[in-house]
Amino acid sequence: MNTLKQFFEGMLDINSGYNIINTVAAVIVAVILGVIIYLTYKLTCRAFMFDEEVGLVLIIVPVVVALLLSVIGTSIARAFSLAGALSIVRYRSVMMSPRSVVSIFFGMGAGFVAGVGLYIPALIFVLLTCAVMVVHGVITSGKKGTAARKTLVVDIPESINYDGLLDETLAKYTDGYNLDSVGIVSGGTITELVYQVRLKKDADTKAMLDDLRVLNGNFKILLSQFRPVTL
After folding, report:
1. Predicted pLDDT of residue 16
2. How far apart are the first and last CA of the chain?
């Protein structure tokens, strides 16, 4: 009961106890942090991976989070707000790179720290993390074959035994592959196989998909750069 009482008292403090100067300062700092995160994301992303909409989210998310936390009075209310924010940010069946997902949560973290008035720690946190991202980008930028790694999703009808069904075809067109997961969909009538594959440099993608289509009876086949992210 005391916890709930403190929570509602903290929510009431939104209109009575917060300092407008602190709120404005938190928003300004959050904007700066968001721009830094956005520029780092743009700098470290490969050209075909960069998404302007994700970039906009990286600027807006820290501002919104910082604004909300700056006007909430108690730590308990902030904890409830944190739990609510983390439950809202969900990506189901969305083709998004892990870098984009991590960058969005990075922006949320920066907004939380700025929202509670820890401006210097927030700036240090963002600068250090961005420096790590840049160093990682420099180290991995020269590596070859990264773009050839893809996710392959193949649906197999229940009438076909999927065990070892695709091995020969995948060995023909890839330098390596791994079966990540096996799932049952459509009420058990379809088995979904998710592979991580590294295509050969001269691989004919259309020919590979045609061969797979013959094996799975013309059911769905999806070849993508990223695996659908579910958080």
Report:
1. 46
2. 32
